[in-house]
TrEMBL record:
Keywords: ATP-binding, Helicase, Hydrolase, Nucleotide-binding, Nucleus, Ribosome biogenesis, RNA-binding, rRNA processing. The Q motif is unique to and characteristic of the DEAD box family of RNA helicases and controls ATP binding and hydrolysis. This is ATP-dependent RNA helicase. It comes from Polytolypa hystricis (strain UAMH7299). PANTHER family: RNA HELICASE (PTHR24031).
Length: 807
């Protein structure tokens, strides 16, 4: 029939249906992706001049997210790293702090997954590792801002949160921002978590992640990832170790170092100074500085969390006139997030922190960075001062150095091209707070306890530093430092005194006596002059002088009961009732001291004092000598004696009926014939590790298979319900009634929706009245059961009914 001819019933034919809108949209998207991929391939990395994000071959979704977040111009590290990353190259990126390294890897992550048309069904596509939780949270927030117009699902996986909630959502994520420890935990424990298709691995603050603290964790994570992937490493102080690069399987990486051509590794807008302050004056100087800069935003770095807590509590009681905050690793995750948000939003405040706040965190408009404790190396110094003078803003940094640390740290700064100038404190503005802190510690035992912990943690942090040219723990004025913390004396630290006394402790007792006699009078005077207020009464008791001077009573007691002179036998014969005061001494059979009696002792007395040695004859063996009461008591048991006689062993019989022990020692020649012991041990461990690995893979496959079967069953049920005409709305929400124990006003019930949310609803159960109790409730139930007409058949029934009505 012609296309425009009338049909048999006289009606015109229906026009052809337009193409599906979804199909057209998909087609347009594929065309834009193919053109974008062609632009990326044709982009000249070295010859093109790039000033803004619009000059790069980026998708519309990424450009819209960057524009909405007010990112328009490129920094040096971004203009040099993003073009290489878009083309799939491995990158080692090093740039100054505050130079925009986060966007340098987040933009390529979004673009590369977008060009590959990555969906939630493809699983995890990009993994971003961060050394601290705060930095991971910050990266995730930036990712949410610039990726708001993409359809990827992104997740934040850090410690301090519910592991079960993360496990439920982990399988649907395309991009994960995480810390190494929690990531490895999910790789080992979460069955539905697959990392076989990861396209990109990013390490932010790579030098910190690859150091000894995270080395084994990162190695285990890399073992779970595919070899064919793109890897990017970014940090202010980048690693160049060949071993690190080999561990991460980098393929011809592009090394991009922005600050190496510059004169300094720190921003030019940063004014850097240091002042030499004795250890006992550091808190005075810090207090004076805070009091002089109340209208400033300041960060103060300490070497340990216990110091942070002590200084925060002490200064908070003294009220310097500016809001104080503290941040360290021992705090709970929620508190750490709240503190970082408060400090970022504040205009004038002071944050006491450890090195967890030294890397990558972007706090706006920080005026001062004070380092009260010397950093472990120049790289840590660079990261600390990088919290100020960010994005070409001005900032100032001051480093407090103890006199013994000055020379060594200045040499390290010269090697890293860090310009630091020395300054002095104005004597007029210097305030002393030693007396105030001491008074607070005497009044508040908890503050004194924190001070003791702060003292010990600081000395330990100096003791464990690798650079012994800078950190010299034996040159620290510990007594003066303890006084500045409000303590009556320096707490004892075992590892400091243990180094000097270890040889004395392990020496024989006779040598110790000789060495103690040779001590000079000056050492004795120093011991006496030490402040006894720090030590307990037990310490003072064992450190008293003239311990060998005994009273007459005690000397007489020892002479009568403890010596082996001629008076011993006479005293024992004279007073047998006082045996509990005598000192009984036992001798072994071959003890040479048996001949050490005086000439007045008879042989019979010596024989009486020596213990009688018993022997037990065992067939086929040498006689067993029983030379102690404890051993004699043990061998009174037949069960114990069988152990020595060779009986009581469990035997198994072979097919010929010959008995064998359950565990037999292998012949040495047979063992050596299979190779050396180390090789056999290594082979055994290798086989066991392989067996464990295969069992783990098998368990994971079983778990995944069960999950797939459940998913297929759900789909089948949904398909069957749809075919049967059941409504879709009936499956959207599933109510799970879970009575909450102990709710007197009526049990609550939780309604779990299909999207994972949980809502609370009230039951339809009738609430109790205020005058009802459990007995009334049971009585009411009984009355409800007994409702109905009462049948009266006899006179007894009538009397019972009447008595019930009357009362």
């Amino acid at each position: 029939m012609p296309p425009h001819s009338a049909s048999r019933n006289g009606k015109a034919p229906k026009p052809p249906k337009p193409a599906n809108a979804r199909t057209l949209k998909r087609k347009r998207q594929e065309e834009s992706i193919s053109s974008l991929a062609q632009r990326v391939e044709e982009f000249d990395v070295k010859g093109s001049s790039v000033d803004g994000f619009t000059d790069l071959p980026l998708s519309e979704a990424t450009l819209s997210g960057l524009s909405s977040s007010h990112f328009k111009t490129l920094t040096d590290i971004q203009s040099r790293a993003i073009p290489y990353a878009l083309q799939g190259r491995d990158i080692l990126g090093a740039a100054k702090t505050g130079s925009g390294k986060t966007l340098a890897f987040l933009v390529p992550v979004l673009e590369n997954l977008y060009r590959k048309q990555w969906t939630e069904y493809d699983g995890l596509g990009a993994l971003i590792l961060s050394p601290t939780r705060e930095l991971a949270i910050q990266i995730f927030e930036v990712l949410r801002k610039i990726g708001r117009y993409h359809t990827f699902s992104a997740g934040l996986v850090i410690g301090g949160k519910s592991l079960q909630e993360e496990q439920e959502r982990l399988g649907r994520m395309n991009i994960l921002v995480c810390t190494p420890g929690r990531m490895l935990q999910h790789m080992d424990q979460t069955a539905a978590f697959e990392t076989d298709h990861i396209q990109m691995l990013v390490l932010d603050e790579a030098d910190r992640i690859l150091d000894m603290g995270f080395q084994s964790t990162v190695d285990a994570i890399v073992d779970h990832l595919p070899k064919e992937r793109q890897t990017m490493l970014f940090s202010a102080t980048q690693t160049k170790k060949v071993s690190d690069l080999a561990r991460l399987s980098l393929r011809d990486p592009e090394y991009i170092a922005v600050h190496e051509s510059a004169t300094s590794a720190t921003p030019s807008t940063l004014q850097q100074n240091y002042l030499v302050t004795p250890l006992q004056d550091k808190l005075d100087t810090l207090w004076s500085f805070i009091r002089s800069n109340l209208k400033a935003k300041t960060m103060v770095f300490f070497s340990s969390g216990k110091q942070v807590r002590f200084v925060y509590e002490a200064f908070r009681h003294m009220q310097p006139g500016v809001s104080l905050l503290h941040l360290h690793g021992r705090q709970k995750q929620g508190a750490r997030v709240d503190i970082t948000k408060k400090f970022a939003a504040s205009k004038h405040s002071c944050l006491f922190a450890t090195d967890i706040a030294a890397r990558g965190l972007d706090f706006p408009a920080v005026d001062w960075v004070i380092q009260l404790d010397c950093p472990e190396d120049a790289d840590t110094y660079i990261h600390r001062v990088g919290r100020t003078a960010r994005y070409e803003r001005n900032g100032r940094a001051v480093l407090f150095l103890e006199p013994s640390e000055e020379e060594g740290m200045l040499k390290r700064f010269e090697q890293k091209k860090i310009p630091v100038e020395k300054i002095n404190v104005r004597a007029k503005k210097q305030q002393s707070i030693k007396n105030q802190i001491q008074n607070m510690c005497f009044k508040d035992p908890q503050l004194k306890y924190l001070g003791q912990k702060a003292f010990i943690s600081y000395v330990k942090s100096v003791h464990i530093q690798k650079d012994k040219d800078v950190f010299k723990v034996k040159e620290l004025p510990l007594e003066e430092f303890a006084a500045s913390l409000g303590l009556p004396g320096a707490p004892r630290i075992k590892f400091v005194k243990g180094e000097d006394t270890k040889s004395k402790k392990n020496a024989p007792r006779q040598m110790a006596v000789v060495s103690s006699d040779d001590e000079s009078d000056e050492d004795e005077e120093k011991k006496v002059k030490k402040d006894d207020t720090v030590r307990t009464k037990y310490d003072r008791m064992f450190e008293r002088r003239n311990q060998d001077v005994l009273t007459d009573h005690y000397t007489k007691l020892i002479e009568e009961d403890g010596t082996l002179g001629a008076n011993t036998a006479q005293t024992a014969d004279a007073d047998e009732d006082n045996d509990f005061l005598s000192v009984k001494r036992r001798f072994d059979a071959g003890d040479e001291n048996l001949g050490a009696f005086s000439d007045n002792d008879s042989d019979s007395d010596a024989n009486d004092l020596a213990p009688k040695i018993k022997t037990v004859q065992i067939d086929g063996q040498e006689p067993l000598i029983i030379d102690s009461k404890r051993r004699e008591k043990l061998l009174k048991s037949k069960k114990k004696l069988l152990k020595f006689k060779g009986k009581g062993k469990k035997l198994v019989y072979d097919s010929d009926g010959n008995p064998h022990e359950v565990y037999e020692m292998e012949d040495e020649e047979t063992f050596n014939s299979r190779g050396p012991a180390d090789a056999q041990r290594a082979k055994f461990l290798e086989l066991e590790a392989e067996r464990t690995r295969l069992a783990d893979i098998r368990d994971k496959e079983i778990a995944k298979q069960k999950k797939r079967e459940k998913r297929e069953q759900k789909k089948e049920r949904a398909r069957a319900e749809k075919q049967a005409g059941a409504g879709v709305g009936a499956r959207e929400r599933v109510a799970v009634l879970a009575p909450y124990e102990g709710d007197e006003e009526g049990d609550a019930m939780s309604v779990a929706s299909s999207d994972g949310g949980v809502e609370l609803a009230r039951p339809a159960k009738k609430q109790k009245k205020w005058f009802q109790d459990d007995s009334d409730d049971e009585g009411g139930k009984a009355k409800k059961k007994s409702k109905g007409p009462v049948q009266v058949q006899t006179l007894e029934d009538l009397e019972a009914l009447a008595s019930g009505l009357l009362g």
